[in-house]
Design goal:
Chain lengths: 222, 222
DNA sequence: GGGCATGTTCATCTTCTGTTCATCTGGGTG
DNA sequence: CACCCAGATGAACAGAAGATGAACATGCCC
């Protein structure tokens, strides 16, 4: 689970960060609203912890900005003030929960868990694209009612495609997502995996769900 | 994607250039702030990589100059110093991201991708001109509800037209945007592509969306 | 250690795209 | 009205990108 902490108070944010790291979350930190929004738009966090009072762009602005740009990651707001209007403003801006400073760290942890759990319940473990169904919990894949056996790497790649249906997925995107940094981009490994995925997915003679977009990459057709 | 590298250290800049070329970016290089600013104002780059310390005009000046002239291209600043004030100055001057020398090339690449991606996310993925719709995420193009299949180069050219509707697009502009520097301007390649685009876009007998402007270039009619 | 599954590399084949070329057309100008 | 040039057009070609089949390597389980 990846968490972003945005707070201009470096002492506090480093305490939060360390605490979350000990709980085995992956944590990034930013110290103003601009950096924070940038990071949140570029990376797929599972949760954002956001201070209201910050330089450049305050938490409310940042929150609204994210929602306006279609980022739905759950947001936990922090504030030093406990005025009711603030709470209302925060929730209005699109935050999911609210915590008043000062707080006990355990309180924060509890809220974090609650939000992540809620998120996990909201999104079904199944990703459905056309007649393709992928279950992220059981790692089972079906097309229609035919079960499909995939190796780990094949599964990772297909899941990526299914999370971005219709979008052109470049080779670079696949590299970054499924391999580490020392990937030899001259190899045709990706072509080979596409080939295998296709042969498993499109058993019946219909044309492939994974389309080639020459010079760009591939696309999973919904 | 076209990238401009501005750095007076010729060794470093040639390394950067070669690396980016291998990633299939189109790269120009300048070695002082004056040349750099000139190129950046004349050409439509998608990203500028800019060293802070340079002769004639340093990176900060150049950055401010560009922003003052309405150039919004994302800027990645390089510097040998890692003082916090420098970072602040750079971002204040209008830079979008920051990288401290020395850096691993992969780090540079990651930032470049992030900036380009961010750029892509801020603008809506759909460009609409009349009944023409182009989706930059999926690379799908439609006229009305008829889907249009384009090759890479055709797509690049049409996108350029759609980003400049009603504007006279000269051959030179197309050359610079869709080809590298060793383009043979005596060839009629561009005419051929216009021909193909027209035949794909204007399937029904209506008159072409791409108008010829004799002696000047072409124009996409909204 | 043998055998199986998965990940990776390699060589070859196929298809498509980018480019060139030769020829045709029509508008503007003297 | 005739000429000329910019642009339009259709076809052909060559190289690149991708598809494919098989071999090779590696690690894991029994």
């Amino acid at each position: 689970m990846r968490i972003l902490v945005v707070d201009d108070d470096r002492r506090l944010s480093s305490i939060i960060k360390r605490g979350l790291l000990e709980e085995a979350y992956a944590v990034d930190a930013a110290h103003d609203g601009e950096d924070g929004q940038y990071l949140a738009e570029v990376n797929p966090y599972d949760l954002i912890i956001l201070d209201i009072m910050m330089p450049k762009r305050d938490g409310l602005q940042m929150c609204r900005g994210l929602r306006a740009n279609g980022v739905n990651t759950p947001i936990l707001m922090l504030t030093a003030r406990d005025a009711v209007e603030d709470r209302v403003k925060g929730l209005d801006a699109g935050a999911d929960d609210y915590l008043v400073k000062p707080f006990a760290f355990n309180e924060l942890l509890a809220r974090v868990r609650a939000l992540l759990r809620r998120e996990g319940m909201f999104k079904s473990p199944e990703i459905v694209v056309g007649d393709l169904v992928l279950n992220t919990l059981t790692r089972e894949v079906r097309r229609g009612d035919r079960a499909i056996e995939l190796t780990t790497k094949e599964y990772v790649i297909l899941e990526y495609f299914m999370r971005h249906p219709n979008v052109v997925v470049t080779r670079t995107m696949l590299e970054e997502h499924a391999w580490d940094y020392d990937f030899d981009s001259m190899s045709n490994l990706i072509d080979v995996y596409i080939r295998r995925l296709r042969s498993k997915i499109d058993a019946d003679g219909e044309n492939s769900l994974i389309q080639t977009v020459r010079g760009a990459g591939y696309r999973l057709k919904a």
